[in-house]
C-alpha cells in the first residue's frame, strides 16, 4: 500500500502493456481520422469550433485538421506535432506523415504482441528507413540544368499537389499561377513577397496573378487617382491630432477663444508635421494609422496621395517590395529610405476598389488574387495554394524530383523487403513490417478512390519487380498506370521528410512504457 502513495491523489499512471496499448490506440485513431483525406479522391472534413460564432472550416489539409483538434492522448499529440512540422518545413505531405507513422505503429503493435522487444523493432525500423531513403536517392531525377524540363517538372509537381485539394478542378490554371509566382522569387524560399488577396465573388477560375503589389484600400477623396514614378513613404505614425484630444487631461481656460487657440496650436503642429513629410519629396504617403480630414486635405493640396489604415501585413510587405522602410519620425529626411514604383492606380476587383502598385523595385514580388464563391472556399483555396507554393519553392532550392501516385512507396518497399531477407535475427521481422507499412500509402490512395486496393497493390508489387518500372496507382482510370506518362511527380524533399519524420515519431511512441498523468490543479475556494 505504501508504494501507491508516491504520486499525488488523482494522478494516474499506466505501466507496461496498458501504457503501450493506450499510445498505440491513440496514434492509430489519429492516423485513421486523416486517412480519408489522402490522395486525389480524398474527402474533406468540416471542423466546427465550439467558441463564439461557431466558426466553420472546411479542409482536407492534414495539418489544419490536426491543429484544430483538442487531444488528450499523449501519443496522438506526437503525431499532431509531426504533421505541424511537416507543414512548416515543406508544406505538403502532412497527411502522408501521419498515415505512415500510424501504419508503422500498427505493425509494431503486432510485433510487440509476439514478444519482440521494442528496441529491436526500433533498430529494425532505423535500418529500413535508411535503406528506403537510399532506394529513393537512386531513382531521383534532377532536371535543374534544362530550364524547359525543369519547368514542366514544377508544373507536374504543382498539379500533383493540387490534385488532392479543392482546386483539383482547375489545377491547370492554379499550377500555372503557382509556378509563375515561385519562378519570380528567383530561388529564395521567402514566400512573404507573394501576397494572397481573397475576394469573395466570381469563380475560382477567375483568380489571377498580378505582377505588382495590391493594397486592399480605397484612395481617399479629392486625391490623385493615378501617380506615375511614385516615391512612397511608408509610415506608422499618428496623424489625428488636429483637434484637442488629450485623454483625462484637464485644461482650465477662461473663455472659448482660448480653446480655439489651443486647437489652432494643434493644427499648426499638424501642419508642420505634414510639411516635414512632404519635404521628403514624395508623392504617396501610406500610413498605418488614421489620417484626419485636415492633414488629408493638406496632402491633397500638395498632390500627395495619402492612404490611411493600411493593414499591417500589407504595409510591411509594401515597404519590403518597394524597397522603402517604415518610418515613424520625420525630422531628418535623408536617413529615411523612400520606396519607389512606376505607377499607382486604382483598380476594381469584383465590387471592391483596390490600389495597385506596378513596376515595384523588388521584381520578385507579386500578388495572387483569389476569387471564389464563399469565404470557406477561399480559405481552403488559400491553404491549397500555399501548400503548392511551399513545395515549389522547396523544389527550386532542391531540384530532385520523384514520381508520385504511390510509386516512391513501392520502390522503397521493394528495397526494404530485400534488406529484410538479407538480415539475420529478429530485426528482419521489423524491417519486413516497415515495408508493409510503406505500402499502406498506395493502399489508402486506392481505398479512398473506392478501388479494390488488395488487387491493385499486388499488381503494383509485381510490376515493380521489373527494372526501371514507373507504375503507380492511377485513380482516374482505376487501374495501375504509368506515372511518368501521366506526369504525376512529387518533390524528393517532401518524400524524404515524410519518411524520416514518420519513422522518428513511431520510434518515439514505441519507446514509451509508462504514462504518468499529473494530478489536476485544485481550484481553491476563493469565497
Automatic annotation (TrEMBL):
Keywords: ATP-binding, Chaperone, Cytoplasm, Nucleotide-binding. CDD domains: TCP1_beta. Its main location: cytoplasm. PANTHER family: CHAPERONIN (PTHR11353). NCBIfam families: chap_CCT_beta (TIGR02341), thermosome_alpha (NF041082), thermosome_beta (NF041083). This is CCT-beta. It is found in: Cytoplasm. It comes from Lupinus angustifolius (Narrow-leaved blue lupine). One of its GO terms (cellular component) is chaperonin-containing T-complex. Belongs to the TCP-1 chaperonin family. Molecular chaperone; assists the folding of proteins upon ATP hydrolysis. Known to play a role, in vitro, in the folding of actin and tubulin. GO terms for molecular function: ATP binding; ATP hydrolysis activity; ATP-dependent protein folding chaperone; unfolded protein binding. PROSITE patterns: TCP1_1, TCP1_2, TCP1_3. Pfam families: Cpn60_TCP1.
Amino acid at each position: 500500500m505504501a508504494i501507491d502513495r508516491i504520486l499525488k491523489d488523482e494522478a494516474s499512471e499506466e505501466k507496461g502493456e496498458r501504457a503501450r496499448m493506450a499510445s498505440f490506440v491513440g496514434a492509430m485513431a489519429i492516423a485513421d481520422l486523416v486517412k480519408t483525406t489522402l490522395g486525389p479522391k480524398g474527402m474533406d472534413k468540416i471542423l466546427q469550433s465550439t467558441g463564439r460564432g461557431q466558426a466553420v472550416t472546411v479542409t482536407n489539409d492534414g495539418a489544419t485538421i490536426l491543429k484544430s483538434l483538442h487531444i488528450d492522448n499523449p501519443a496522438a499529440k506526437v503525431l499532431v506535432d509531426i504533421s505541424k512540422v511537416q507543414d512548416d518545413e515543406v508544406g505538403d505531405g502532412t497527411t502522408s506523415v501521419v498515415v505512415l507513422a500510424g501504419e508503422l505503429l500498427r505493425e509494431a503493435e503486432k510485433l510487440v504482441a509476439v514478444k519482440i522487444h521494442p528496441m529491436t523493432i526500433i533498430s529494425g525500423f532505423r535500418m529500413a528507413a535508411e535503406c528506403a531513403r537510399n532506394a529513393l536517392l537512386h531513382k531521383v531525377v534532377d532536371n535543374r540544368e534544362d530550364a524547359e524540363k525543369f519547368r514542366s517538372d514544377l508544373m507536374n509537381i504543382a498539379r500533383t499537389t493540387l490534385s488532392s485539394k479543392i482546386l483539383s478542378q482547375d489545377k491547370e490554371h492554379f499550377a500555372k499561377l503557382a509556378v509563375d509566382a515561385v519562378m519570380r522569387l528567383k530561388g529564395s524560399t521567402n514566400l512573404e513577397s507573394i501576397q494572397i488577396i481573397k475576394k469573395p465573388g466570381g469563380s475560382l477560375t477567375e483568380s489571377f496573378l498580378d505582377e505588382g503589389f495590391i493594397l486592399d484600400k480605397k484612395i481617399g477623396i479629392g486625391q490623385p487617382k493615378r501617380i506615375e514614378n511614385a516615391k512612397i513613404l511608408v509610415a506608422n505614425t499618428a496623424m489625428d491630432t488636429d483637434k484637442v484630444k488629450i485623454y483625462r487631461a484637464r485644461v482650465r481656460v477662461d473663455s472659448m477663444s482660448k480653446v480655439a487657440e489651443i486647437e489652432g496650436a494643434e493644427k499648426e503642429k499638424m501642419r508642420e508635421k505634414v510639411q516635414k513629410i512632404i519635404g521628403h519629396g514624395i508623392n504617396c504617403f501610406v500610413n498605418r494609422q488614421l489620417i484626419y480630414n485636415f492633414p488629408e486635405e493638406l496632402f491633397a493640396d500638395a498632390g500627395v496621395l495619402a492612404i490611411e489604415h493600411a493593414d499591417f501585413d500589407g504595409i510591411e510587405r509594401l515597404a519590403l517590395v518597394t524597397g522603402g522602410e517604415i518610418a515613424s519620425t520625420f525630422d531628418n529626411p535623408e536617413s529615411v529610405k523612400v520606396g519607389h514604383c512606376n505607377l499607382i492606380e486604382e483598380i476594381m476587383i469584383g465590387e471592391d476598389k483596390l490600389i495597385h502598385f506596378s513596376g515595384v523595385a523588388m521584381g520578385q514580388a507579386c500578388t495572387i488574387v483569389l476569387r471564389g464563391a464563399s469565404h470557406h472556399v477561399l480559405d481552403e483555396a488559400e491553404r491549397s495554394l500555399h501548400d503548392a507554393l511551399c513545395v515549389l519553392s522547396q523544389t527550386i532550392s532542391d531540384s530532385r524530383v520523384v514520381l508520385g501516385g504511390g510509386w516512391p512507396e513501392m520502390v522503397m518497399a521493394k528495397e526494404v523487403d530485400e534488406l529484410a531477407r538479407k538480415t539475420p535475427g529478429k530485426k528482419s521481422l521489423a524491417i519486413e513490417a516497415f515495408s508493409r507499412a510503406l505500402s499502406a500509402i498506395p493502399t489508402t490512395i486506392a481505398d479512398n478512390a473506392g478501388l479494390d486496393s488488395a488487387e491493385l497493390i499486388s499488381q503494383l508489387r509485381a510490376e515493380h519487380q521489373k527494372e526501371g518500372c514507373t507504375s503507380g496507382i492511377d485513380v482516374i482510370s482505376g487501374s495501375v498506370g504509368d506515372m511518368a506518362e501521366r506526369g504525376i511527380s512529387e518533390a524528393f524533399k517532401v518524400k524524404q521528410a515524410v519518411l524520416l519524420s514518420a519513422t522518428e515519431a513511431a520510434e518515439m511512441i514505441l519507446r514509451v512504457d509508462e504514462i504518468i498523468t499529473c494530478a489536476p490543479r485544485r481550484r481553491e475556494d476563493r469565497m
